[in-house]
Amino acid sequence: MIYKDVERIVDDAISTIGKNIILGLPIAVGKPTVIANEFYRRAKADPSIKLTMMSGLTLQTPAWNSDIERRLIQPLCERLFGGYPDPVYMRDAHAGKLPANVDLQEIYLSPGTGLGKPAMQHGYMSSNYTHVARDIEAAGCNAVAIMVSEQSAAGKYSTGSNADATVMQLWDMNRARAAGRNVAILAQVNRNMPYMYGAGECSPEEFTGILDCDAGHHPIFAPPKEPITVTDYSIGFHVSALIKDGGTFQVGFGSLADAIVYALQLRHEKNDVYRRIVRDTKVDEKFMPIIQKVGGEEPFEKGLYGCSEFIFDGFIRLMDSGIIKRRVYDHPILQSLLNEGVIGEEVTADNINVLLDRGIIGPWITEEVFRALRKFGIFKDNVAWNDGCLVLPNGDRIPADMRDIVARNRVVNECLGDKLTNGLLIHAGFFIGSRWFYDQLMSMDDARRREIKMREISFVNQIPGQDELKLLQRLHGRFVNTAMMATILGGVASDTLDNNQVISGVGGQFNFVSMGHEIPGARSIIVVRSVRAGSSGPESNIVFSVGNLTIPRHLRDIFVTEYGIADVRGKTDRDTIIEILKITDSRFQQALLKKAKENSKVPADYQIPLAFRGNLPEAVANLAKPFIKEGLFPTFPYGTELTKEELGLAKALRGLKARLTPKGFRPTGAAIGKTFRPPAAAKPYLERMQLDSPLDRKEKIIQKLVLYALAEDGVI
User: Per DSSP, what are the bridge partners of residue 2?
Assistant: First the structure.
């Protein structure tokens, strides 16, 4: 049933399932916030309703904690997120205002936003992404709500951004519905959601209610692009050399992922420059054996296939650059032959000979074999099979007897297609990206969009289920994931602090690391920035031990920091420590080595080689300088949604916040003078903050703080 009123669709849902509502929602941009907010409004107004909301990565527009932050953030929100309905329940959760009859459970938190927030820490549910649908069903879920695209010409909807666990919940709920259970299966139509092919395509009959109203057609949440630092680029460059041509690629999201994409494009499009960087930065001297073993420096002649939990702008850019171009086919035998190189994508008489030799085509081409091969372009679309003959468009009939030389020659000359069809470039569970990314998907021609297939998360994130086909498709898998910290024994912490406060969530990281070990020829690559800013100065992200591990040390494989690559698969604890210390910041190497010796983990006389004792930020920056002067490694290689003034203000105000201490703030240095005599260069920044003509004492104080921050940061 189609609804035009959100109140009515929720009314009918509650009348069906009652007031004990366990509501499953998709993660990220596929969340039907209009419906979710209405359920929450009802529960907030009626204490007799018990509402449990189960979801993850609930996206909301940035908030501010002070007037100075509001002046920067509010205009940004209006420009970048105008029309997006914030999840009201998440605002209340962060503010500690959730009513007692509402329980919010999240499998993944927006990184860092839940720290110190009781509702977020209480309601975090640690679960592998592949287990989420199972866990939600076990909790007694009786309602799901999802966002869908507008109907296709064939009358179907698409879950667009979210096949992942969403379609698994949809299947579970429809089984429950068929068994006679009272459930609500709701959809919110949004014309801004791209129609994506794959597991997320669904018929209207799969829903108990479909909301199609003006409020539902809001913009898709599009986070602004992050700046890429020199540290990010160094990590990205090392990773790019570990990706094998003809292989499979998975990566996460954010500035590190953008840096990897940029480096892959550099390798493919400017290979001479790429190789020069390898030489000039001494990457070849330190890490060429692992690069030659696992990846390479050459352009991507065969190309990559993308198999990723989620995709973002970078995957489209890799498609456009001709890097993601290795198509996979949902046919184990064809995929095997392609992997072996005995057939190519061009259909020739040799293809038929190979298919005959391998027994795929028998003495007679059966209808079943014919239809399977026609689906993938071996036979032309306009050729049919009937009663033991291949039938041409003009009605001519060719016996399907491959023992008959005349018939066989006619089949080769008149029935074969030109090129394999229905190949796929990407399998993904969900997506999130910039406005540009969504526009690209919306404007993409149908044939191109069909090469991106959205699948349930159990397909993308693990091998069990269609094992043979997945193993064949995921050739030379390189699964790249980001960590907060790594231990010198190769354990990985990606989601939770030592004090048990959750930063984000497990997501699919464990699955992809496992696949890196389970698939022959695959590798898991963990990337980690070696240093973070601590309250008392720099702190190492390579540590002796950590309280909460996302990935245990027995799944250790390849680690990459800005200082290089450590291959520790199959190595002893001693050798693992030795390799990981080589890519640790040198300010922390000796303390870690000392502790390892004290605990009998490395020989007492072991010393870190001299070539790896200069791992310092300034060394990375100095290596990058000549290439930055050439125009390489820009901060925003793919543009930015922020203005020059907003970028300068954001950086300067972050610096100001870091200088504020519990003891107060005492500005010093030459920057103070500019707070009394603002230079002309400060005018556009003050205008952007509406502080060019302060109206009262408070605004004058804020103006001086902004001027000081800009001056101290060298912006003015």
Answer: 210
